[in-house]
Amino acid sequence: MNDLPVTGLWRLLRPLLFQLDAETAHRLTLGLARRWSAVASGRLGAQDIARDSIYRKTLRPIGLEFPNPIGLAAGLDKDAEAVPLWQRLGFGFVEIGTVTALPQPGNPRPRLFRLPADAALINRMGFNNSGADVVAQRLQRLRERDVLQIPLGVNIGKSKVTPPEQAADDYRRSFQRLAPFADYVVVNISSPNTPGLRDLQTVEQVKALMDAVQEPNQRLPRPRPVLLKLAPDLNESDAVECALAALDAGADGLVLTNTSTCFDGLQSDTTGMSGGLSGQPIFERSTEMLRLIRNAIGPSPVLVGVGGVMDPAGAVAKLESGADLVQVYTGLIYGGPGLVRRLLREIPHDLLPATLE
Predict the structure, then answer these.
(1) Residues 37, 174, 190, 191: which is the catalytic one?
(2) N or C, which terminus of the chain has less Cβ within 10 Å?
(3) Is 268 a residue of the active site?
């Protein structure tokens, strides 16, 4: 197994969970997390390192304050089943989803694979989720419990049965249902597991989608920040053009990046596997795109760096490459529940400016 630091109880639990197939382990863990979250608030005291004021960050362009810059990426908790637990693990923000307008079961199993030799995952889940109506009800109950100390993002994607020419309406429907309960919304057009979704990564489609969600957004008493999530497999010019088009159409920033369909250089045998690669192997290409986009758009728009953050050095590299915030997913699977605090302890404080103007 790739030699990543593992500490505490996770050193004992991970080998047991890794004896199960990846999706079974995921559902078992999420089921336990859901039960805990149903009765616990997940609130942390000010003395916890994850709530130390040194890590607090205010992003004025989107009007949100984050207790720390480490967030949970979309994909782990698609249906917002365990948000209080993620808060308890020290995350400074949580992004649930991807949620689609219509409920859908996702792709046939097996659809989630571990690659321990590469510290990676491959998933072809296919946006399996309960749909915008059910998730909105769950988020409403969460808000009514008043347990959140952290910003909550909602990641939305296109329903599989929706034809491409109706994509804008599909995203609009999800936005209308979910945005009132979100602190920010991410428009996901970059998953490789919904046919035709990545074809939306063009200037014309990006503008159409941004227009579709901004129309209901501007009718809200408090319009929500909207970010666009791109794939690491775009060529440089297309990535920059899509980023600029999104910002011109009213986006507040970008999430960089989603998973990759390029399996080059892996040690693991991926015969019969397809989908999106996450974890350590995509770190370099994801971070390079982050650096490229930051140089192209300037200092003000918000950038969330995600992709291959497995250790403190990875988080530092994202921040140094222009990220305002950093997300993890695969790193949590391999590194365990102590990962957030370990990242925070080792991030130099000079990389944590308190305010983005």
Answers:
(1) 191
(2) C
(3) no
